[in-house]
Amino acid sequence: MEHNQSFTLDLTDENGANTAEYSIVTLAAVAFAGVLAAVISSGTVQGLLEGLIERALSF
Length: 59
Fold this sequence. Notes:
The chain is an all-alpha fold. It is 66% helix and 0% strand. The chain is rod-shaped and about 85 Å long.
């Protein structure tokens, strides 16, 4: 018994393209959040933020 099935590839089919784009954007956002968290947790930035908050509350 022989199977003669043809396989066609439709390159215009964009199913799943949005999911891939959302995944890339989410990954970039998580990476940016990680960098931002590292910068904010550094001592220099914490000192600047504390000074800014103290000046804002002293009015």
